[in-house]
Specification:
- The chain folds into two domains: 1-93, 2-Layer Sandwich (Alpha-Beta Plaits), CATH 3.30.70; 105-133.
- Helix content is 33%, strand content 25%.
- It is built from three helices and six strands, in the order βαβαββββα.
- The protein has helices spanning 12-18, 33-44, 108-132, and strands spanning 7-8, 22-27, 48-56, 60-63, 72-75, 79-86.
């Protein structure tokens, strides 16, 4: 087996397909369905039920050869995409969002609210200490 990267697609369409237990990957153009199934099963420790592949043609892009030269057109590379359906219950962790406890608040309003709460807690603690003495 070759050592080739299988790159997961992180698009809205891929996330919607994930709800039907289907994952989308960029794969090498010369990879067969059997190779893709075997590699995905080994790397992610999942059971592959079905694979559909499609080759997406590269889009044309314009280029110029200078100010007065006639512009030309070239094409981006073609990509092979594999839609991989897994056994129910199996998941690929690449697509899962993991939230750790150490994450910082994202917006300023949340930060301010947390600061106010901590300041209020400190004040209450100081008052309790004074009353205890």
């Amino acid at each position: 087996m070759r050592s080739v990267q299988y790159i997961p697609r992180a698009t809205e369409k891929a996330y919607v397909a994930q709800t039907q237990n289907t994952y989308v990957f960029f794969v090498p153009k010369d990879a067969s369905k059997q190779e893709i199934a075997q590699t995905i099963a080994e790397v992610y420790k999942v059971t592959v039920l079905d694979i559909r592949t499609a080759i997406r043609k590269g889009k044309p892009t314009r280029f110029s050869r200078g100010k007065h030269a006639y512009p030309g057109t070239t094409f981006r590379r073609d990509h092979k995409v594999a839609y991989i359906t897994l056994k129910s219950g199996d998941k690929i962790p690449v697509f899962e969002e993991t939230k750790t406890e150490g994450d910082k608040p994202e917006d300023k309003a949340t930060k301010k609210a947390e600061k106010k709460v901590t300041k209020a807690d400190k004040k209450v603690e100081k008052q309790d200490e004074k009353e205890a003495k």
